[in-house]
Amino acid sequence: MYADVLVSINTKQNDKRFTYESNFSNLLVGMRVIVPFGSRKLEGFVLKVHNNKPDFEVKKIISLVDDKPVLTEELLRVGYYISKKTLSPLITSYQSMLPRALKANIDTSISKKYETYLSLNSSEYTLNSKKQEEVVDALKKEDKLKSEMNEVSSSSVKTLLDKGIINEYKKEIYRTTDEDYGDFCDVQLTDSQSFVVDKILKSINDYKTFLLHGVTGSGKTEVYMNVIEKVIANNKDVIMLVPEISLTPQIVCLFKQRFKNNIAILHSGLSGGEKYDEWRKIERKEVKIVVGARSAIFAPFENLGVIIIDEEHSSTYKQESTPRYHTIDVANFRAKENNIPLILGSATPSVESYTWAKTGKFELLELNSRVKNVMPEIEIVDMKDELKNNYKILSKSLKEKIEKRLENNEQVIILLNRRGYSTTSICSSCYETLKCPRCDIPLTYHKENNHHLCHYCGHKEYSDVTCKSCGSKVLNNYGIGTQKLEEHLLETFKDSRVARLDQDTTRAKNSLESILRDFKNNKYDILIGTQMISKGLDFNDVTLVGVLNADATLNIPDFRSGERTYQLLSQVSGRSGRDTKKGEVVIQTFNEDHYSIKFAKKHDYIGFYNYEMKFRKAMSYPPYFNICIIKGSSKDYNMLFKEMTKVKSYMINEKIIVLGPANSNIAKIKNMHNVQVMIKYKKLDDIKEKLEFIKNKYEASSKLKIMIDVNAISM
């Protein structure tokens, strides 16, 4: 018997299968094996098992890593689809789909976790002490943990084991524990929710994509759970995706209340061992539902009934490292493979998704009103006027509204999409900005750690840093981050309890869940944070949302900046007044006339969409054209620009639009210059052959790295 094996090697032939002889009768496609490769031993995936003896000498498979496939037949097809769609090596597609413990990597060492149990072995025995009797009496009722019995008497346990009166055995356990999330409260669906659920269930055995456009607080999650209930009642499986780890705790709580322990969780906040355990719950068919972020789309279910992607507009569904897949593309592929519906949900759908719904490619379902309350009233504050009256951080209106909420024992959420203390440090002598020496961005000052930090490469400069231009040690800090905002709020509202949610406060395990739980339990009055607080969070007592520096996303040179600003403002506004209390929102901006802000104020997605589509059409952007970015990176800028000019000249043809070369938005990261060429195209076939040529041409280059993002969502 022979096997074609895919191994991870850094050559131009990294998609090539190598044939090995096998003496293992239980060898199956999708297993990992250890094979000889030159002088090395490598792990690889078995892609084919056959009896066709090659006409050349073959080596033998050394050993099997698995006793059953880690990649199902469907996941093997998914990996192949990703590889072809993104022009990435097949091995990277398969590796990206699996938890670290199951990747084809000879150095991986994540093991199963076991606990030692004791059981009664004999009905005939003589006991010599009361402690021995106590141990045996306990084991007559049920097997017990050895550690528990050792607390009674470790010497008695040892004696009983030595005499063979009791046995010990290992039992595998999972690292994640099943918590009690309370009981499920049955919710009566509104007429609109019932209509949507019925529409979806009528197509439950057909491949179809639904776009559920529902305003914040309209009960999309309840729709999802009702559909899921019907699907698992038919003994089928469910993948439910959310865009951010911060959304997972609340979703998990709701789902655990309703579906108890029938759920596995997959997201990047889990340890390698925890991911391994959750994956095996799915593999062993112990659960019917997986809830998680992007990578959960690869859950190894073999009887899928529905795939649901909440907040489908989120950019986090796009993988920004090789392979650069979009989760919605993968979900669509799996839905088609399984002949099941795909549900995309959002209060602010991506322009592309809404276009496909308008043109009939997707079926549009709408929830136009909130279940419990009306949409919050939004006030736009022009900060140019506020600065004249010395209101620098909080406008007069927002300050007064916060005071009112604190008096009424209500809660406040404030969004500031910039972590750290201050965003820029400038020399007081020569006015040079303190920048990262490795990246083309200013360093951010973090007061808690008393250092200036690069948020791209992690470079640190401590507080006694001198100006690189003139040697001055006097630096003035400008701008505001979440640390400074927290300090300002505590100074302004003396008796308030303030929590901060950003990457700095959520590094420790379970810290994010802890902060959100405490805020829900009213241990804090004000929650401030970056965009991780903008989506999905549902707190009954939040009646005011403030947005500081709403212009931040508008200042990014990207064709989606208007769309992302509208989505961010609409989503965070939706955190206010979700229960029976009326909600308000204050948006502080220096650009109150921008269309994304004006439409967000009116909760007018359709108005925003129509305006945005005119811009997209005029500029040949998605959905009218697709975008491909070819980015080159090198330490040698002149050589890089010269080569990227060659790339542009090679790509030009009459069916596409080619722009550049030009510096990327971040022109230098980790001492590597970045230059890109943008291609606007209609069909991938118009550019695929040339992209393959460019990929192969530069693949082995040590001086120039080329990255191709075939369906880029940002510039």
List keywords for this structure.
715 residues, alpha/beta, 24% strand, globular
**Which residues form runs of ≥5 with pLDDT under 50?**
none
How are the strands of the biggest sheet laid out side by side? 11-12-10-13-14-9-15
Fraction of residues in helices? 25-40%
Total number of helical segments?
A: 19
Shape: globular
| Mean pLDDT level | 91
Taken as a percent bin, the fraction of beta residues is: 15-25%
The end-to-end distance, rounded to whole angstroms, is 49 Å
Number of DSSP strands?
30
Q: Structural class of the helices, strands and pairings?
A: alpha/beta
Question: In this structure, how is the largest beta sheet organized?
Answer: 7 strands, parallel
User: C-alpha Rg, in Å?
Assistant: 29 Å
